[in-house]
Amino acid sequence: MDAPPSCVAVTEIFAPLCHTSVSKTCRSISFEIRRAASFARGEIGARNRTLDTVKSQLEDENVLLKSNLSDAIDTDLTDAISQLTSRQAAYQASLQLASVLFKTTLLDFL
Questions:
Q1: Which of 4, 35, 39, 108 could form a disulfide bond with 104, CB atoms 3.0-4.6 angstroms apart?
Q2: How far apart are CA 44 and CA 47, in angstroms?
Q3: Domain that holds residue 104
Q4: Are 8 and 28 members of one domain?
């Protein structure tokens, strides 16, 4: 069953208006989607830049900590041998002095 002629005429009159309204709504929705996507890309870019900065700072700190650890653990071999030799000589001298002091007896004082 077909619609009465008066209904068909009304539909034909409002069809372009509905199409225009739908078209405007679609453009508006499309614009809002592009705006939201642009905002999201900006937000992601800012967060990515922050992460890159933090990563760079952590890498720099890691290098600094490794350098400090190396300075604390590693030893200059020539310096260590020199200090050992010096301390051994001082130890030997103190042992000789102690042996001389302890060899004294009462007769040595008389």
A1: 108
A2: 5
A3: 76-110
A4: yes
Instruction: Let me know the angle formed at the C-alpha of 86 by 80 and 92, rounded to the nearest 5 degrees.
Output: 130
Give the number of domains in the chain.
2
Which residue matches tokens 């508006």? 28
How far apart are alpha carbons 81 and 74 in whole angstroms? 14
Amino acid at 56: S
| Distance from C-alpha of 29 to C-alpha of 23, rounded to nearest angstrom | 10
**pLDDT digit string, tens, across residues 12-68:** 555 555 567 777 887 888 888 889 989 999 999 999 999 999 999 999 999 999 998
Looking at the structure, do residues 84 and 42 belong to the same domain, yes or no?
A: no
Residue 6 has pLDDT above 80, yes or no: no
The verdict on 83 and 34 lying in the same domain is no
Please indicate, yes or no, whether residues 67 and 13 belong to a single structural domain of this protein: yes
Which residues, 6 or more positions from 11, have their beta carbon under 8 angstroms from its beta carbon? 3
Task: Tell me, yes or no, whether 15 and 41 share the same domain.
Answer: yes
